[in-house]
Every structure is written in structure tokens, then in C-alpha cells.
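Slide 14.
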Amino acid sequence: MRANYKMQRLFIEDDLSAGEAVEAGPQHSHYLLNVLRMAEGGEVLVFNGRDGEWRAGVQQKSKKAALLKPLEQTRPQPRAPDLVYCFAPLKQGRLDYLVQKAVEMGAGRLVPVITQHTQVAKPGIDRLRANAIEAAEQCGVLAVPEVAEALRLDRLLAGWNKDRRLIFCDEDASTNNPLPALQAITEKKLGLLIGPEGGFSDDERKMLRALPFVTAIPLGPRILRADTAAVAALALVQATIGDW
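Slide 15: predicted structure.
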């Protein structure tokens, strides 16, 4: 069932079930009552990443507080995407864009990775999660990706599930065509690793290429900014061996 984009969608943490009203919280209450100026009995769509999507009635508890009463489930909860998306954090505006596009394009778990050339060593995890939720609200996504704490690249690789194929974008690849390498992948569980603005170091590239569960791919003949490369790589993977 397709998402209904004519109604406002809100992510809430509470459990959702028919007839059980939940507090909208200060931020959502302000948005509903003061920004949207929604009257008693107005309706929105709500989801929590667990219980599907619900049509909910707005009830005004006080001047500053609203309740949301689930009335009818409009979409059941789908299985979460299984693609693990690993990325070197960028400067803030471009990082926001990168996270939003990853959610839109089917990433199931987001893992910030600290590499030798990473520009931002300590990304704001709360902001990353807020961006993931905002993208889910706007694009009809019901399974909000988990956002993990940042890991150094060596720790990520040491703890990687060897049954999950990790694809990394190698700017030093000997070819411009990524399709043969992607089409040779037989594993169903996938991860994608995007490097920083300055690319992977020679040592990092050597370490990645030496691992049996890693596949290197190029991203064509042009030099791409890291946030552009992130979107291009996701599109390639999803269209070739993903869920498109």
C-alpha cells in the first residue's frame, strides 16, 4: 500500500493501538496546535517504526498540549531494510543531506565511520537520528533506520559479520564500470561503505582490498563529492542487487 502524502505524518515513540490516545509531546503539540492550527478532531498519520502507520485524531488537552488517538491502521509495519550503510561523516549541512537520502533510498542501519581523512571526528548522533526521522516522515518510510555510534574503520571491519558482503567505493579502481563487480555478488546481506571527502588512505584501501568479504567498486569516470557519491552508490547497489 502506498503512503498517503496528503496528510501530515508524525513519528512518535509511544506504542500505537486503536483507541489508545497518547501524548503528542511538547514539540509535536506546538506543531499541531500553533503551526498547523489544527482544530479538535483534525487528523494526521502517526508511526513509531514498530506498529505500522495509523490515522489519528487530534485532541486538545490544554492550550499547549495535544493528544493523538489512533483510529485506524492505514499501513502494516513492513520488514526493515537490511542494507547497512556506513559513511565517513561530513560537515553538517552535507551530512544532513547524506543521511536523509540514505533513509529515502532504503538504508536499514546507519553507521558513521571514522577514517584517516574524516573531516568530522565526533558527529552529533542525536542530529543524525533527527534527520533520519524527518526523512521518514516526509517520504512515507515506516521502518526508521537505527543510527549507530561512530566507529573507527578498523573496529568496524574487525566486528563485521563475515556473511554480509561489504561494498566500498574505491576512487582508485582500475575501471570505471561498477556493474561487473556488483553482478558477481551472490550474498543477500549487504553493506555499503562511503569514504570521506579526501578519500580512503592508501593503507585503508589496502586493508579493505585484503578482506575476503569486501568488494571494491568504482563510481564512473568523474570525480564526485562525498555526498554525491553516497547517493550514486546507493542507487547502483539498490538497482543492481538491492530491493529495487
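Speaker note: The chain has a mean pLDDT of 91.
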